[in-house]
Design goal:
With about 250 residues, this protein is α/β, with parallel strands linked by helices. It is built from 9 helices and 6 strands, in the order E-H-H-H-H-H-E-H-E-H-E-H-E-E-H. The protein has 2 domains: about 150 residues, 3-Layer(aba) Sandwich (Rossmann fold), CATH 3.40.50; about 60 residues, DNA polymerase, domain 1 (Orthogonal Bundle), CATH 1.10.150. Helix content is about 40%, strand content about 10%. The protein is globular.
Length: about 250
């Protein structure tokens, strides 16, 4: 796994201490892959599923999603369902990774500036590594995946685990100076509950307005200066938000 920061990296700007990233729908546009995998699995067991039902699972922990699929007619154990879904998404990712606009550019800028990053995802490590390995070395200093936590999003545990790791390698962590980038309500709720500065970037599903978080239409054109404005209060929550784009 990449190290948190290479020796000799540029000093971290005083305002942003770290940026934590969601994976599906934020870094990569894999939510359609998950929705297709869920539909295919339910159809195999002659159950009922729809794209709308699939959208309802966006951002949820995989065991919770698997339980919903059981209710839809999938006659497999929770672990078997998770393995089937992950296998399908990995197969699609190996064929093509659909990066979200602006995501790799912002990630590269953070890496160049020496800003610590973590990937905090409800996908399991096997899938997360498939994607991380296709990024420049050192893009992420730490991974927190769904199989590493007892409680998935919207519980704060995934983001608190990332904070705990950061605290172990960089003293003086201030959660009000850590930014979480999310595309779903469960993910944004998890980050907010962990006490992080939270930015929702709605994509496949709507994320309701909330006075405690920011919303951007896209990461395209966003840079470190935009993130610094969030922690200094120069960008008030929702002040920079526009009407969500809805489905992609």
């Amino acid at each position: 796994m990449p190290s948190p920061a290479a020796p000799g990296s540029p000093a971290i700007p005083s305002r942003v201490q770290a940026v934590f990233w969601d994976l599906d729908g934020t870094l990569v546009d894999t939510e359609p892959y998950w929705i297709a995998a869920e539909l295919q699995l339910v159809e195999r067991f002659d159950g009922y599923w729809s794209e709308e039902l699939g959208r309802g699972l966006v951002g949820n922990a995989l065991p919770a999603s698997a339980a919903v699929l059981q209710q839809a007619g999938v006659r497999l154990e929770i672990r078997e369902i998770i393995d089937e879904l992950i296998g399908s998404v990995i197969e699609q990712v190996r064929h093509r990774i659909p990066w979200r606009p602006g995501a790799r550019e912002l990630l590269a800028e953070l890496c160049d500036a020496g800003i610590p990053t973590a990937l905090v995802t409800m996908s399991e490590k096997l899938l997360a590594q498939e994607i991380v390995e296709r990024l420049p070395a050192g893009s992420f200093g730490h991974l927190v995946t769904g199989d590493m936590v007892a409680n998935g999003k919207p519980h704060p545990e995934p983001y608190l685990r990332a904070v705990e790791h950061l605290s172990g390698v960089r003293p003086g962590v201030d959660k009000s100076r850590i930014i979480a980038l999310e595309d779903s309500l469960p993910g944004a709720s998890s980050a907010q509950a962990a006490g992080l500065v939270t930015v929702a970037i709605p994509h496949v599903v709507q994320v309701p307005d909330d006075p405690g978080r920011h919303r951007w239409d896209s990461l395209a054109g966003r840079g470190l200066a935009d993130l610094e404005a969030l922690v200094t209060g120069e960008a008030a929550p929702q002040a920079e938000a526009a009407v969500p784009r809805g489905t992609a």
